[in-house]
């Protein structure tokens, strides 16, 4: 997916609990950011109308709701969310969930992304949750299942990009959260890379939150990341 413009590869995470604050930030960022992620925090605080408005204004929207439930519930949820006009929508990478999501999407244009293993997890966390596989093996398995089922892309740590690319080939998008510019705090992420490292590893889209949204100058921070992506490409 090398044809994606550098600016469109940056997805800014609007992990903000207030729609007005999020709207002000989007206005401040202006043309420097073309793609936004809306997850639980903003989505459950009234952010879906904002997502629909931004999509109508030409912004790309990533609805990061990581759907996972019985098949019928997932299918109906995806059908409802498909009407917003988002570019991406996440589901957890369980086979039944992924199949239901494809069914629920129908002919809608939204692309479905399967979340392999959260970037806040390491091997100890996986073992504590009852998984017998190490993180890398679990990511590989879920990426293989996503490809077989027909999911459009995968969400994984940049550290697992090469093995996901081996499994998924060039046709599936790889979206990576937990990207931290050099010198930025890692926060609650345990498997992170810088933007340049992520691009070198083969990531298509980079999700960045606090390094932009909590910056004293969000626009300058976003532009710096876009520049780093451009150089890496």
Low-confidence region ranges: none
Number of helices: 11
The second-level CATH architecture is: Alpha-Beta Barrel
What is the percentage of strand-forming residues?
Answer: 15-25%
Number of strands: 8
Enzyme class: lyase
Keywords: Decarboxylase, Lyase, Pyrimidine biosynthesis
Organism: Flaviflagellibacter deserti
Function: Catalyzes the decarboxylation of orotidine 5'-monophosphate (OMP) to uridine 5'-monophosphate (UMP).
Question: What would the keywords be for this entry?
Answer:
single chain; about 230 residues; alpha/beta; TIM Barrel; 8-stranded parallel barrel; 11 helices; 8 strands; about 45% helix
